[in-house]
Amino acid sequence: MLSLIKNPTTQLSSDIHVDVLAINRIPIVSQLLDVVCRTTGMGFAAIARVTEDQWVTCSVKDSISFGLKPGDELKVETTICHEVRQKNEAILIDDVQKDPQYFDHHTPVIYGIQSYISVPIYRKDGSFFGTLCAIDPKPARIKTPEILGMFKLFADLIAFHLQALDEKNLVIEELKEEKQTAVLREEFIAILGHDLRNPLATTRMSAEILLKVAKDEMTKRQAGIIKSTSFRMEKLIENMLDFARGRLGEGILISPKTDNPSLLKTLEQIIKELQTNSPERELSVNLVLEQPVHCDKNRVGQLFSNLLSNAFSHGDEDTPIFVEAGTRDGIFSLSVTNSGDEIPETALKNLFQPFYRQDHKPGKQGLGLGLYIASEIAKAHNGTLKVSSSKKEINFTFEMPLS
């Protein structure tokens, strides 16, 4: 008659509890244990989580009223599964009374079993999980290659499903993190778009009022500095917004239209604004659009502003900056050329990477996003942004299809 000695421990560790739940989430477990009992003729089959000091039932098929249910625990030292874990090999017993190794073993005596089989289950990383086992109070013929092969196959199937569940749980956790990141992203963009730009607009408006009403030159000069600084801050904020959208959100969005006069007006306005802040700089401008250009004029203007600002900041102050825009052979091109120190080959490879900054004059460094944003705008127009550098000049050229 079968007897049962449960471990008095009433609460499982969180890890063991998770493993028990995982086994019971595998859809084939019930059928698998049923096949084990039908094939072997044994009345009890189970998947057990076995550690150095615990034996816990994960799932069970019991037609002999052995009395275990999922989550129940036996004293591990009273089980043969304990030895399976130690030896890392399967143990099969047809008839305890006739088995020279186990005829006087304490486990059959304690639990009143005559036939027994236990095969180790290993996770895909090689760690020991537990056993697939079966017992019966009567002898059974289980020491056959077919029975052992079936148990090993089932143990591999269980390991496979455990791995699949682990991967699924990992994906779920990653999705949770992505959702949290999305919330932070939206908050970040909202702060940049509203909480920083609004006070900046107020600062610029105040500077413009001072420029109009100030009587002395010192006040006008300081107000002019505040105004030009506000333009620079606005550009930094816009670049950060576009970086956040491009890397964390929906990407650089464009709304292309065909409107050459409006595009020309946008480019001319950008030149006027930058020259207002640096009236001493000489520009040579040639803008001729003889064919329709289908583009987002505001985004192209932003690209141009980033390139021209870069030339103002880092070009030779004693030489002119050349700006050209034109249409030819189905291509719209826009270029900015200035004199300055030759850009090293290693730096040329990284100019369009976010947050990349060369060593420049003090106070002239930005966030390192201007050229990155410009290159992303070029890509959004199915175009290219290229740079060339020599000892004489540095040239940035944007090209895109006219339509």
Automatic annotation (TrEMBL):
It is an enzyme of class 2 (transferase). It comes from the Bacteria. Residues 191-403 form the Histidine kinase domain. Keywords: ATP-binding, Coiled coil, Kinase, Nucleotide-binding, Phosphoprotein, Transferase. Pfam families: GAF, HATPase_c, HisKA. GO terms for molecular function: ATP binding. Its EC number is 2.7.13.3. Residues 158-185 form a coiled coil. InterPro entries: BphY/WalK/GraS-like, GAF, GAF-like_dom_sf, HATPase_C_sf, HATPase_dom, His_kinase_dom, HisK_dim/P_dom, HisK_dim/P_sf. This is histidine kinase. SUPFAM superfamilies: ATPase domain of HSP90 chaperone/DNA topoisomerase II/histidine kinase, GAF domain-like, Homodimeric domain of signal transducing histidine kinase. Signal peptide: none annotated. It catalyses: ATP + protein L-histidine = ADP + protein N-phospho-L-histidine.
